[in-house]
């Protein structure tokens, strides 16, 4: 890297690519060449910076200037002004809301201030397609260290001491998992990287694989050494083409460098791995289902025990760890267990990556220390609620997490606290909702997902969730009864208690948590046939306020069923018997003359 | 591996740590209701998918309820099987299953035989259902001659899948689609007739509900009986007589040969014959073929061919080995052709007026009867096949008090049989019967001890060597198609060398056939049927097929020599190479 005086780091994550970061890159390269700077400045495609809300992102290194919302046509100005004349392009800087001014460096941005990036350490910093860049940031040093200086038992002990727990959702201590796999005697053992990330809105694993694939490969080799496995598989959903592409490049390069394959670093240790594609079934994120899918069987869970560490892939001891978990391993090996365990809470060490989404200003990927509060994530890092609306709820843990409320905002979050307040860490999805969100509808939405994604094996999940969803549908249509609410709660609890796998055991969480925290809304839907958020269309009607209507006819013109009548310049009226409640008139009216009741 | 101490419902137990909670509870005489679970220990058929969530119990220190059928015990485990929480869990599972199950119990094929119905009653689920909603509906599959699929009644216990894939290694049935739409089906939703299904019916034998039943022929048989123009003869397979009594609440293993004959006569059949007669005939042909192959350097081993499930299995799975099975038709087919030729001639009845009804423990026999090549002069050898269960239904419908019937005998000349033919009904029996005859023919001496006990038992694959003259004749027996596959693969790879092999598609042989009274997962019932078969054999005056006087007469009057030209023409068949999928 020393060859160049300057690097332009352009986000090549899926989000920024969708906003044509490839166009930015080619334009930057074109203009750099035009100015004869191609030997001085290098354009590097990196992984995700996390600040997806403001993408595409271009960062100038070593000036540390952070450009946001860059378009391909901005490339010329960046080259002419910043690279040639040394002048920062002010208009592309981020306006920090807390300071009300443009800031050039990301350390001044509230979005990054509270973050500690361990798993995401290289995302947005190195090129994921060049192993040399990974090596330049201490890459594969951890593997070198364990192979030359540590026994497998010492590696396990270190990981146990660090307190690292599974980041895929279960939160099982990683060191103990490895130890169990090590202790099960077998000629063949396997390491599996679970990259079957399927929570709606979650993309932390994808970002790591897109931005820093070698960190995962290195960690898998370390896990192989620790457990005694010589072979690994990365199970990734086929709809992550960019991540797969970069993984393939990374695996090829690692093999060329002798960091995968036979006799790694001349130590006699063999480890190689391969990619296995998932067809996108959510339940294949459950480790036994994942294993069956790799084996070529139907992706559905089996009863545990036996745990995969005892009898996993092809009935051999197998350690299944999530992408983010693996990404934490190399720094833990290099910096030590004490360094890692100093971060976080008593039982949850280190950091957690969250995919912040929903009605929050700064949508993106954030890595925060365990023990941070939801308020800090949503309001400090996330920049608060969009359009200054009122915060209503935050849903953590993916589709089977729970919906938390205002009163939970100051709880320090870790695995235990989230579980104790009716939600879970999950893989780190975090969806923020405001007063325009109907909590009954939200519960219905998540349940629809789990009903779709249930593998259909066990009765409670297959039939029970379907029944829960049907009851919720009735309630949102104004056909619910108070008896339905009783059944909802009772059935939800029974499903949690009897379902076979983690999916079924947690799928009623959105219903049960919203019933706990937003009971009034449920009762309103049932008794008053009212949806206060105005989401449940069956429960609301559109009315024209005669005093406000000037008779512009805009509403009548957009109405798809022609149910709005009235003369020009005279108040209009909606024929309620014909209205389909599509809301087109509401959007079209410029005079706020239409209201939902 | 060792013993562990556990506590179930305050009862302290010291039991092997390999046990599940369910097995340990049994030791303490604690009943935990199950639904999807199936464990036919001796047949190594175990369904432990833990999908129904009925056997849920509370384990101290565990976050959620545990499925007793699939949870292994450990030292210090404290289990409660009947707490309000565990009862609520299992009740909810059953209530949910009922919410997606047609409530037509009164007219259901499995009324009073349905495991779901029983468990709902046991749990006191009465009156209006707690949960209601969309029901699964699927097209009914009556495409085959054997198996009727009504997936509206499927509870996804996956027992059929376990039998089809793990025990029989046919891989026809498996779960497809996801969530509420999950359905057990052949690949691509093909109708059964277009698959490599052997129609062994083991899926039907273990189905807890009426999702899988037989294609019912009772109506057509009644119609034939009531048709004055038709001369309706019935034959009964060996395994039927040791199981039919169960349908009338008699002790499993009760031999009801005489009552059965009496009942058939009361039902209105013109003649009541016995497939056992034809089993003796089969031995005459098969033993001759075996002796012929032995003496003339023919293809060995010879494989028995009386099981139609097995025949279809090797046609699909081992089309390259079609020359090794015996070319003998199965006994009931031989019977059919003899009735429509020899018997018709002898009693001057037009063959086209004769209706042959077979009562079989088997569903594949229904399919077999429809195989085009098993016909003579454009008449199918057998017209209708009904199962043991269907016969019981007819007897009940006719208002016959079965238990009080006086024993009756079969009609003659096609009703006489030997002990050798009776044992066709159990695994190892056909080869034992063949040996009794082949031995005497090959050695020219009298076989004093006819019991080849080394060929008996429940082990999946059994071997024995029998000294015939100065030759060691190596025999193998396999039951269950998974075991058959192992044996056939070993033969194909040249790893195993045998002279003769008996194969039965169903675990246990015909006594465990897909048309037998439902055993509801109780393997003891199958064992009692086997014991009854051997006791029937022991009680017979003649125990070697070639000594059956009516058989001797048949050859004298009609067939000529065993394995001769006429016999070959009438009693032997050929096989067809079929696709694997």
Note down, in words, how this protein is organized:
The complex is a heterodimer of chains A (597) and B (581). Chain A has 597 residues and is of the alpha/beta class. Chain A has five domains: 6-108, Glutaredoxin, CATH 3.40.30; 131-340, NADH-ubiquinone oxidoreductase 51kDa subunit (Rossmann fold); 351-434, Roll (Ubiquitin-like (UB roll)); 439-528, NADH-ubiquinone oxidoreductase 51kDa subunit, iron-sulphur binding domain (de novo design (two linked rop proteins), Up-down Bundle); 541-596, Alpha-Beta Plaits, CATH 3.30.70. Chain A has 24 helices and 20 strands. A five-stranded mixed sheet of chain A has the order 9-10-8-7-11, with helices on both faces. The longest helix of chain A is centred in the last third of the chain and has 18 residues, at 459-476. The model of chain A has no long low-confidence stretch (mean pLDDT 93). With 581 residues, chain B is an alpha/beta fold. Chain B contains 18 helices and 21 strands. Chain B has helices at 21-27, 84-99, 115-122, 159-167, 202-206, 218-226, 257-267, 275-295, 308-317, 331-347, 364-369, 388-397, 419-422, 429-443, 481-492, 523-539, 549-559, 565-571; strands at residues 3-8, 11-16, 38-40, 45-47, 56-59, 66-67, 78-80, 147-149, 174-176, 183-185, 212-214, 231-236, 271-274, 302-303, 354-360, 375-376, 379-380, 384-387, 461-468, 471-479, 500-504. In chain B, the strands form seven sheets. A five-stranded mixed sheet of chain B has the order 2-1-7-5-6, sandwiched between helices. In chain B, a hairpin with a 6-residue loop joins strand 9 and strand 10. In chain B, helix 8 (275-295) packs across helix 10 and helix 8 crosses helix 14. Chain B is globular and about 75 Å long. The model of chain B has no long low-confidence stretch (mean pLDDT 95). At the A-B interface, helix 17, helix 18 and helix 19 of A face helix 2 of B.
